[in-house]
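Bump. Still looking for Methyltransferase type 11 (UbiE) structure tokens.
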Amino acid sequence: MILSLLRRSGLVTGHIIADLGCGTGFFSLPAAEIVGDQGVVYAIDEVHEILQVLETKISEQGIRNVRTMESNLLATTIPNQSVDFVLMACVFHDLQRETLGAELNRILKPTGIICVVDWKKIATEHGPPIEVKLTEEDVIREMNDMGFTTSEVYEAGQQHYGIVSHKSPVSDHSFQDDK
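Sorry for the wait, here they are.
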């Protein structure tokens, strides 16, 4: 499911991806498979111990295209305009959006893609409290406020949704809010 979700969101061979809040690599490792030897996955997290778990997985699996970074997610050391694809899985609801928008605009190439996978605003056994969760419409509005154009919203399992946005406007596939 993760491979198809990433491909559906626009991740392809050769992309440079930043996985903000990568955790133990649930998305980073499949992303490494998609981008292949020509691509790079920056797996970024603020928690050293979590990155150590990911580094062990990378070593055990012989993966060579994942670079772990212990960093504030809103102030990474990724070079300016060097990233094709940013993934934020289950972290968008926690991030300060004004600072996030500046960092996304800084690291993304002009045609960069942003994929937000987050918790649906429903009561669930796992995940953050419902009061913290954002609706799909909330995320779209926030992305628009940061200057990004949303092109797709989709189901990402029973408890999650996926939202694909772009740094530059998308002419043929722009998301239109019917409200």
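The first helix runs from residue 2 to 8.

Edit: fixed formatting.
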